């Protein structure tokens, strides 16, 4: 049975990082490393395993799949460790919410 995740296509504004090529893997590693650098104790995502799924090519928003199968949108700041509530983030409950966020983001 196919899922929303199987059929979801990100627009050209997003780097879809679900692929297996070397460039996708490197970009995922870089974004995941930056997330670990920025998150500190007290942030809602601190200590959560997160895998980069997509990154906006027009801003620093990244969609991460969390270890509980939810998703988080994080606006990375690329300035080292942050003090909560930074980096700004929000949790999405599933692929339908990801699709809604991506659609909203593109018109926002």
Rg (CA only): 13 Å
Widest β-sheet, arrangement of strands: 1-2-3-4-5
Beta-strand residue percentage: 15-25%
Tally of helical runs: 3
Number-wise, the strands total 5
Net shape: globular
Overall pLDDT level: 92
Enumerate the spans where pLDDT stays under 50 for 5 or more consecutive residues. Answer: none
Biggest β-sheet description: 5 strands, antiparallel
Structural class, by secondary structure, is alpha+beta
The helix fraction, in percent, is 25-40%
N-to-C SSE string, H for helix and E for strand? HEHEEEEH
Number of domains: 1
Q: What distance separates the N and C termini? A: 33 Å
What attributes does this structure have?
single chain, 108 residues, alpha+beta, 5-stranded antiparallel β-sheet, 5 strands, 23% strand
Structure description:
The protein has 108 residues and is α+β, with helices and mostly antiparallel strands. The chain has one domain. The protein is 31% helix and 23% strand. The chain is built from 3 helices and 5 strands, in the order αβαββββα. It has helices spanning 4-7, 22-38, 95-107, and strands at residues 14-16, 50-56, 61-66, 71-75, 89-92. The protein has a 5-stranded antiparallel beta sheet. Strand 3 and strand 4 (71-75) form a beta hairpin. The chain starts with a helix and ends with a helix. The model has no long low-confidence stretch (mean pLDDT 92).
